[in-house]
């Protein structure tokens, strides 16, 4: 018995000792947590309940010269459904009505949505996708649907908002407007105005401290460290939407007709250098028949220009007073030989004996090569230096990445040969971008003053100008006024009675130069010849307002109609013709606005007028957002809304031609 009592006492002591050790360990741990690790755990607890959140800044818009929206940020909405959230009674009462409403808005049968909703309820799916990329007006409408109108907690509607960048005018000028996005590695990349002016457009994000409350919600905590976001500035481009639309469709039509690989057209304002239109269209694959804006050929693609480079010859010869336009040359049956290499005229048999001026007008290779070679063969550096002084030996210094580099061979370098000088005379062995060529021709149109191409006119914050971009002169005088006068005369004659005579119109005057260059000559040329067809010039010829270049690569050569006058010339003529015969004047636009009605008139009257005169876009500035949306949707337009209140700005100018399903963006304030 004594032994048994002893064993019991031993066990009691053992248990007590173990409990003591446990208590000691707990005390030690609590002390450590409280005094040693306390700061760490308090910080951890705070991080889980209090956290800084980024407040994204609103990105600025890009506008055209006439105030139309070219790029803007708009909200898109994804709608999901928490099938567990609604009470059984609410779900059963409203599910059929919800399915019917979704069917009307989204287009699929009511039974499809009913089955989806009931299946999600049975499977306790808390994240069923209902619709993606809804506009603001669609989002407002779907919130009013049965069941969803009970709110997120009772109705189960989950809203995911995402801001996306959109081009209201579609794919037109897409490459120049550009983009900014993350690549597959999460690195920011971009092109065009969006990328080059991102430091103005993006603004600065803010931050706010929030505290976690019930049901995973976060409540803002106002403190001295809160930083308000600074919205991005707006960028005012030089693009004119009307001219851009003309240029885009004129180029597209010609590319399709000739099944060309790619091409570009640029329209520049003569006095200022402002780019009023720039279109770059190309195929993704050779077999494609659809064209996209994937590469900015006008800026990035340096190529042999062919006969459009002959203007350089004329500037050098006339300004250096080597010869005059009246100097006569023998074309030798259209073929001359230089060091075993033949220079040919496109006109078989040549032109007999003709003047330098006439040789330029008919684009005679033999005439221009003779003139350049005879006068510069003993000192080719004099000719090349003249090219350098024109600024053709270096990039224009545009604000965009990827500008093509020109190539002008220099006497004495490893690429210079005995035929370099004569080949340069008709645009081979040199490389320039279309925009460089246009800048030179624009200088002639501008009486010798060479101005830098300009894509952006100013940076604005609402109505306040942050930065203004003024005209930038590259060269105040590329040649003497007497030379300019002679150049304008021969360029005008190219259209009147030269290689560009197909473009002549008695209604308006044009001046310019055709160009046709073989792109795959030499040992690796292959049996099929590829050509670059171009036309560059200005209009009106007497008092130029615009200059324009059109370049088309690899047009179909069947039918022998691959020359610049046939392929590129019609685009130039179409642009000039539309600008000077179809462009509405300011007074005409004002009259259109009057026909539509004043902003202050009642909505009913406004709607009546809009319906009766529905060929033009109405002026909805000053109207309430709800009224403006109703009016425009009634006119079969697709409306996207930014902000709340009254219409401050509309993406399509009042008086513009109305087309069905046209997208218009309204900014409210």
**Total of DSSP H or I helical runs spanning 4+ residues:** 23
Radius of gyration: 35 Å
Largest sheet: 7 strands, mixed
Question: What's the average pLDDT?
Answer: 87
- Helices and strands: which structural class? alpha+beta
Low-confidence stretches: 584-613
CATH class of the largest domain equals Alpha Beta
Approximate strand percentage: 15-25%
Protein name: Penicillin-binding protein
Keywords: Carboxypeptidase, Hydrolase, Membrane, Protease, Transmembrane, Transmembrane helix
InterPro entries: Beta-lactam/transpept, Beta-lactam/transpept-like, PASTA_dom, PBP_dimer, PBP_dimer_sf, PCN-bd_Tpept
Subcellular location: Membrane
Concise account of the structure shown:
It is found in: Membrane. With 669 residues, the protein is of the alpha+beta class. It is 37% helix and 22% strand.
Tell me what the structure shows.
With about 675 residues, the protein is an alpha+beta fold. The chain folds into 3 domains: about 75-155; about 240-455 and about 480-580, Beta-lactamase (3-Layer(aba) Sandwich), CATH 3.40.710.10; about 585-669, 2-Layer Sandwich (Trypsin Inhibitor V, Chain A), CATH 3.30.10.20. Helix content is about 35%, strand content about 20%. Strands 2, 3, 4, 5, 10, 18 and 19 form a 7-stranded mixed β-sheet that branches. It has a 5-stranded antiparallel β-sheet with strand order 12-11-23-22-21, with helices on both faces. It has a 3-stranded antiparallel β-sheet with strand order 1-8-9. Helix 3 (about 90-105) packs antiparallel against helix 4, helix 12 (about 310-320) crosses helix 14 and helix 12 (about 310-320) runs antiparallel to helix 18 (about 480-495). The relative contact order is 0.09. It is found in: Membrane.
């Amino acid at each position: 018995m004594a032994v048994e009592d002893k064993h019991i006492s031993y066990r009691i002591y053992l248990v007590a000792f173990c409990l003591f050790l446990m208590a000691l360990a707990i005390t030690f741990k609590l002390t450590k947590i409280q005094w040693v690790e306390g700061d760490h755990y308090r910080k951890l607890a705070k991080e889980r309940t209090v956290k800084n959140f980024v407040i994204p800044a609103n990105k600025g818009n890009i506008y055209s010269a006439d105030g139309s929206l070219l790029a803007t940020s708009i909200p898109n909405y994804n709608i999901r459904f928490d099938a567990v959230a609604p009470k059984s009674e609410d779900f059963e009462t409203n599910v059929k009505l919800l399915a019917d409403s979704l069917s009307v808005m989204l287009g699929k049968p009511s039974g499809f949505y009913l089955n989806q909703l009931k299946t999600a309820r049975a499977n306790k799916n808390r994240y069923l996708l209902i619709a993606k990329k809804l506009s603001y007006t669609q989002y407002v409408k779907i919130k009013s649907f049965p069941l969803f109108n009970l709110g997120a907690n009772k109705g189960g509607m989950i809203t995911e908002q995402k801001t996306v960048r959109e081009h209201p005018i579609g794919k037109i000028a897409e490459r120049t407007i550009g983009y900014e996005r993350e690549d597959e590695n999460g690195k920011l990349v971009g092109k065009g105005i969006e990328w080059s002016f991102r430091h103005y457009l993006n603004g600065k994000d803010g931050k706010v401290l929030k505290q976690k409350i019930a049901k995973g919600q976060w409540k803002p905590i106002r403190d001295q460290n809160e930083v308000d976001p600074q919205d991005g500035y707006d960028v005012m481009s030089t693009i004119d939407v009307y001219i851009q639309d003309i240029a885009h469709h004129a180029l597209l039509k010609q590319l399709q007709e000739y099944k060309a690989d790619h091409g570009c057209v640029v329209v520049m304002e003569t006095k200022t250098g402002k780019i009023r239109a720039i279109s770059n269209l190309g195929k993704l694959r050779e077999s494609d028949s659809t064209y996209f804006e994937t590469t900015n050929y006008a800026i990035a693609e340096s190529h042999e220009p062919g006969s459009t480079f002959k203007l350089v010859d004329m500037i050098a010869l006339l300004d250096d007073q080597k010869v005059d336009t009246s100097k006569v040359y023998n074309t030798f049956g259209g073929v001359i030989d230089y060091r075993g290499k033949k220079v040919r005229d496109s006109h078989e048999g040549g032109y007999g004996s003709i003047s330098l001026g006439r040789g330029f007008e008919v684009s005679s290779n033999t005439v221009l090569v003779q003139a350049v070679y005879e006068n510069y063969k003993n000192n080719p550096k004099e000719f090349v230096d003249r090219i350098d002084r024109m600024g053709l030996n270096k990039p224009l210094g545009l604000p965009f990445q990827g500008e093509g580099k020109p190539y002008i061979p220099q006497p004495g370098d490893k690429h210079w040969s005995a035929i370099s000088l004569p080949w340069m005379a008709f645009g081979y062995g040199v490389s320039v971008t279309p925009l460089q060529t246009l800048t030179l021709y624009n200088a002639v149109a501008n009486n010798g003053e060479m101005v830098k191409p300009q894509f952006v006119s100013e940076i604005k914050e609402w109505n306040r100008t942050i930065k203004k971009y003024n005209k930038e002169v590259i060269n105040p005088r590329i040649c003497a006024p007497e030379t300019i006068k002679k150049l304008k005369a021969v360029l005008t004659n190219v259209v009147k009675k030269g290689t560009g005579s197909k473009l002549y119109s008695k209604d308006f005057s044009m001046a310019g130069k055709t160009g046709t260059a073989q792109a795959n000559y030499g040992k690796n040329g292959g049996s099929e010849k590829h050509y670059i067809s171009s036309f560059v010039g200005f209009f009106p010829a007497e008092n130029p307002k615009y200059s324009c270049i059109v370049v088309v690569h690899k047009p179909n050569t069947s039918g022998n109609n691959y020359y610049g006058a046939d392929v590129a010339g019609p685009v130039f003529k179409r642009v000039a013709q539309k600008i000077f015969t179809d462009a509405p004047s300011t007074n005409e636009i004002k009259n259109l606005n009057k026909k539509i009605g004043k902003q202050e008139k009642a909505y009913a009257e406004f709607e009546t007028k809009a319906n009766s005169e529905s060929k033009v876009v109405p002026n909805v500035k000053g109207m309430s957002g709800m009224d403006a949306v109703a009016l425009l949707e009634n006119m079969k337009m697709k409306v996207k809304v930014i902000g709340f209140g009254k219409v401050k700005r509309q993406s399509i100018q009042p008086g513009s031609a109305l087309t069905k399903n046209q997208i218009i963006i309204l900014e409210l304030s």
